[in-house]
Structure formats: structure tokens, C-alpha cells
Predict the 3D structure of the following.
Amino acid sequence: MFTLHPQLEVDTLLVGDLPICRVLLSGQFSQYPWLILVPRRTGCRDLTDLPEQDYLPVMEEVRYVHDKLREVTKADKMNIAALGNAVPQLHIHIIARFQGDEAWPGPVWGKGEVTPYPDKGLKMLKKLREVLDLQAYDA
């Protein structure tokens, strides 16, 4: 049975579910619009741990979310990463980057102060749910 890693639970806001991945919004760094996809599969640490039949559909979900986040943010560059060093559960970061952001052109990890969304992410969540065609969650 799928359960979300406790650290992801604490650090993110629930956007909704695609056929395989749970879509989360990083609530800690509003200066970097940052989505996280977590395949709802147990025992996966790395992309190659996905069941073979899920690998390509997950990559299509990554592409779909990437394109929609780029559309919403008008980002200069999109970053995609699956590191999982601190959180062992497979999760894929999709981050909108801008030439003027404080970490540019380097990675966002360890750069900038924690800057939560002023409205607890409600406006961004609504926008993302609309563009990704996901149902709102009451949770």
C-alpha cells in the first residue's frame, strides 16, 4: 500500500493524483515554483526500481507536468531531478527557474531562505489543479 514519506508530507502541499504519480507542491520555496512527482508504488528508491510497465507512463507524467508548470510560470529554464539522497522514496523534482532567481545559474539546493507561499499556496494550488486538470483535495 502506498504511503508518502513523512518528510515529503511535511514539506509539500498536495496538488492531486495523476494515473501513477502523486503531484506535490513544495511549500517552502515560493521563489522557485517546484513540483514533486511521487509514483504511487511501494519499494521504489530509483527510477529503475519502477515496474517495467510503469516506467514510460511515469516519464510521460513528468513531461506533462513539466510542460504545464513551464506554461504557468513562463520559466526561462526547467530543471528535473530525481536525487533521493535525504528522502529515500522515489520522487522527481520539477523546478521552474528564472535567470533572475537567487540561485541562477546554479542548483537551487541550499540556496535562499525558506519563503513559504503567503496564502499557504492556495492560489498556486488552484492554478496548478486547473492546468493539470486535477480535482481539488479537501485533505
Observations:
- The longest strand covers residues 12-17.
- The chain has one domain: 6-132.
- Strands lie at 12-17, 21-26, 34-39, 77-81, 92-97.
